[in-house]
Amino acid sequence: MKLIIVSIIEAIIPTFVKNLFSNINKDKPRKIAELKNHDIFNTLNRVKNEAATIQFHTHGEFDAAKTRMCYDFVKHKTYHCGSRMKDLINIKNIDNINRDALKNIIFEEQRQMHVDYIKAIRREWESKNLKDKEIDYVVHLFEKFRSDVIISFEYRINSIFGSSYNKNNFTIMLAIFEMWAMGIDLLPRDIKTTFHSINGTFKDINYIG
Predict the structure, then answer these.
(1) For tag attachment on the chain, is the N or C end more exposed, with fewer CB atoms within 10 Å?
(2) Tens digits of per-residue pLDDT, 44-84?
(3) Does 177 fall in a domain?
């Protein structure tokens, strides 16, 4: 009888211990650094590749300058946004900083993404002999068509930080990345609207890609 009881215990204990550690690991908070594998980075690449296939026409004729300008704009925007996102998730102790500090970081990173890619596209367009007023014209048009997305971002960030569903910094950052991914999905719409609106302004410039 003792042998039977011992055999049963030996059979049960390993399974119990395994399940115990499995449940412990299941409840272990996830790290923000894991978001390096988030689909947002695939989305950035997809949108950039989509921009490479967009073609513009002016008065029925292919507009090479506008087509290439559009791609270069998206190229810089996706690169610099993706770069800042990767830096963001690798900030030291980001998993443990308080919510107010994290919220300030999010808003600052979002602002800096804009600064970085605008600076990059300005450099490129200046090297193609576009004048400051021409660059400002395109940038302001894009910001006009993009304004609803940016305003929505601000509302959503405040909502995400105020939600009781987000128990830790990981769930907050996951929600932020999902929000940004939605905005990236809308980028082709906004960039097409922008460059359609400039008509033939740049059709005759010697823009070399």
Answers:
(1) N
(2) 999 999 999 999 998 889 999 999 999 999 999 999 999 99
(3) yes
Is 165 inside a domain boundary? yes
- The CB-based long-range contact list for 138-144 (8 Å cut-off, 24+ gap) reads 138/69, 138/73, 138/194, 138/195, 138/198, 141/194, 141/197, 141/198, 142/73, 142/190, 142/191, 142/194
163 in a structural domain: yes
Do 113 and 80 meet the contact criterion of CB atoms below 8 Å apart?
yes
How far apart CA 15 and CA 165 sit, in angstroms, is: 33
CB distance 114 to 93 below 8 Å: no
In a domain, 173, yes or no: yes
Q: What is the DSSP string of 135-170?
A: HHHHHHHHHHHHHHHHHHHHHHHHHHHH-TT--SHH
* Percent of the chain's residues with pLDDT above 90: 73
Detail the DSSP E strand segments found in 7-90: 57-58, 61-62
Residue range 92-118, pLDDT digits in tens: 999 999 999 999 999 999 999 999 999
Q: 20 lies in which domain range? A: 1-30
pTM confidence score: 0.82
Which residues are within 8 A (CB) of 47 and not within 5 positions of it... i.e. 6 or more apart? Answer: 74, 78, 184, 185, 187, 188
